[in-house]
Amino acid sequence: MAGTVRTALKLTGVVALVIILIQLHIWINKPWYKFKLMRMQILCVLQTILSYGSYYLYRTYKVSTLWKNVIGITIFLTHFSFFAQYLFVAENPSFLTMIPFLAFSLHVFTFIGTLCGDIGTFLFIPFTIKISIAYQKFKVNFVPTVAIILTIWSYVNTLLPPEHSVVRVPIKNLHPDFNNFHIVHLSDIHVGPTTGKNFVDWLVGKVNSKKPDMVVISGDLVDSSVKNLRTAVWNLKNLKSKYGTFYVTGNHEYYTNDVDNWLNYLRDHLLINTLHNQHRVISRGGGELCVAGVDDLQAEKSGYEGHMTDPLTAVSGCPKESPIIMIAHQPKAAALSIKLIPQLDLILSGTLTVDSSSPSTSQCISSTRSLPDSTNQTGYSRVCVTWSAVLRRSHQIILLP
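Structure (tokenized):
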């Protein structure tokens, strides 16, 4: 088994090298193929790193043949998880995708625990045969147990509904007719190998119960093609709000290699406003609100013609006196938008969330990163909030004049 692991490791390195050479010498002038090969390279690099971790775990644990076989199966499923997400995508997740992903989680937790334990023992405990034997017994029993508990906890956490909170945002020059304008913001839903139709149906019901004026989906909606997931996301057509649903791409839409079909499908079949470096003007009473959206930062690298992050084009034509809401998947795109268009009033961003509600503060709402203070150059309120299947949090935004 150990010899097989070593052989697989060498083959993975060779394949990664071959792919790099192919990109450099053959497809360097073809952006779309270059993007696909870049993803293949990343996959090979990850598999190579994972192979080192697998070999380390397999050699480290001195256990019976039965448990060696269990470790071997777990390692196989871990490596297979990278392919399961492409081979077994269905309307709802199946055990063919969930088991490899659970094995991957178990593998990562076990590797981290084992590596930390080995380093700690080497650095802080005088090495003797007696201590070494005691540590091996402790490691075999303790680390896998903790890894299993963490894996189960992580899986259960994904099944729980997101936490929900309300964020009230004062907007400069907001017309009084837009007072208490409600926005529900969704992001990083990742319909695909681990999230399916059942979650989407639940999400639609939850959003509709809030009776929003507008719904925003700020990218990473899907992780596979329209062909594989059209029925899984169909119920998004039933999202109910007074002024509709607005959507921008995330990086994962480009990873599907089907982004144009997704934009067409969401717009033509699910009646969602797709903002492809575009904007829509919402009128309410005597006031107007400009809702703009940009492509993800990954767009230009993907090689898809006409795809790039272009905030200036997105807001071109917005009424001069109306507040502007910018939708961008990544906080880096939000920072770019503020740099190019300082007068933006509200930014809705996925993946990570920030609240920059005054010129001198940058407070994190529900994630681990906030935009730097240098991006916050005016007295306008800016809030980036998310409802994410990954972050397990939701925010309902209420605009105030």
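Confidence is low (pLDDT under 50) at residues 352-393. DSSP finds twelve helices and 13 strands in the chain.
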